[in-house]
Structure prediction request, 271 residues.
Amino acid sequence: MNGWKKIDAAVRATAKVKIAATDTLGADLFTDKSDAEKQVVEDAAAINVLQDRLFAERKRALLVVLQGMDTSGKDGTVRGVFNVTGPLGVIVTPFGRPSEEELAHDYLWRVHAVTPKKGFIGIFNRSHYEDVLVVKVRKFASAEAIEQRYDQINAFEKHLTENGVTILKFMLHISKEEQAKRLQERLDKPEKRWKWNASDLEDRKLWGDFQDAYETMLRRTSTQHAPWRVVPADKKWRRNAIISAIVRGTLEEMDPQYPAFDWKPSDFVIE
Ligand code: AMP
Ligand code: MG
Prediction:
């Protein structure tokens, strides 16, 4: 869409971002629900075509990082924005608690192993940022180790971008009230009950600590090469519209090209 740069500029994190003062509704970004939903359908179709070109070109990749509190809509974003992108070209990787093998390595080991290959769109459902979020809040690593990670992550992401990976980082920003509503739905609706995880309540008790960790993350790791977008995510339709616009706009700017050939179709006869 034409207006995507304006939307993008509105949600870019600055070095002084204050998470508590950052809107979770974003009412002025998309005003009409059905227009926004139509836009997402158009964007999703365009993303599919662009991904095909990215795959044909095989020179670059796109990495979409989704972070947010429980119920912030990470799964819903994948479903809403990439639902018509050919499954051959998109790989979604969820990051849960590290295994013993993963813990025996440095924290970026498991991440680097699943960064998208040239031609692919990789989506991280949670990411290496958990290592400065839950790990910080729960004190799974020392304060010194965590302090070093911001620069390490910036260097890692610079390395990726210099090697053909464009990185889009989205923090899905919901209010504590909206989380309460969504958690309650998981109890109330039988088809959502499978998502219920009592430990989400433990994280909810630490809401303030998590928000502080998010704020520091945004301030320290929103770089020129891989800036953060803080997406107002209380409304699912608006969240999808913001993200689909930015993903589409970014892919259009990357402008992947079908490869050139040293032969002409008329060189061949199929009998
Ligand atoms: P979910 O995304 O709801 O399936 O939950 C995955 C869980 O794994 C979340 O509670 C994350 O906080 C947790 N997790 C992800 N990465 C890490 C990590 N590096 N260390 C500890 N816990 C993590
Ligand atoms: Mg959790």
About this structure: Strands lie at 61-68, 90-94, 121-125, 165-173, 228-232. The first strand starts at residue 61 and ends at 68. The chain has eleven helices and five strands. The chain has one domain: 4-255.
